[in-house]
Amino acid sequence: MAKLEQIQRLLYIAEQLKSKPNGITYEETKKFLEKKFEEKGFELKFSEKTFNRDRNLIAEILGLESKYQKTLGTFALNKEELNPESTSTLDDILVIEAYRKSKKNSKIVLFEKREPKGLHHFHDFIDAIKSHRVVSFTYQKYIENQPEKRVVVPYALKKSQNRWYLLATDFSPENKKPLRIFLSSDEKPDFEKPKIKSFGLDRISDAEVHHTRQLRFEKVLEDSFKHSFGVSSTLNETPQEIILSFTPRQGKYVKSLPLHHSQEILKEDERELRIKLKLFPTFDFTQEILSHGANVTVISPESFRDEIAKAISEMYKKYN
Question: Which residues are registered as beta bridge partners of 149?
Answer without folding.
Answer: 138
